[in-house]
Amino acid sequence: MSTIKITDADFETQVLNADKPVLVDFWAEWCGPCKQLGPILEEMAGELGEQVTIAKINIDENPEAPTKFGVRSIPTMILFKGGEAAAIKVGVQPKAKLVEWINDNA
User: Fold this and answer.
1) Pick the catalytic residue: 28, 31, 87, 92?
2) Whether residue 79 lies in the annotated active site
3) Most-buried pick from 49, 77, 86, 104 (CB within 10 A)?
4) What CATH number corresponds to the domain at position 48?
5) What percent of the chain has a predicted confidence (pLDDT) above 90?
6) How many domains does the chain have?
7) Is residue 34 annotated as part of the catalytic site, yes or no?
8) Residue 1's pLDDT is what?
9) Taking the mean position of all CA atoms in its chain, how far away is CA 5?
10) Which region holds residue 70: left if phi is over 0, alpha if psi is between -120 and 50, else beta?
């Protein structure tokens, strides 16, 4: 499995109505740290795909979701569970810390 790309239009369907936890990465093309995080999330999507969906939303192309969930800086990752924001992590983190964070909150 790999990360999925989501938009404002399908955010509710893909994230809020999902049957398992969804980690949403709020990112932008011009963001250096976001580019560092990308490969880590791809790797995690392959390893944790059964447990959690890992999605990415470009904040420049989709301004509604980041505004709704109070995203102020990127990269911001929000773990959604049962249609609610269950946990938030800002900035690039080592893969082991992210996996631990998901396990603690999913």
Assistant:
1) 31
2) no
3) 77
4) 3.40.30.10
5) 97
6) 1
7) yes
8) 79
9) 10
10) left
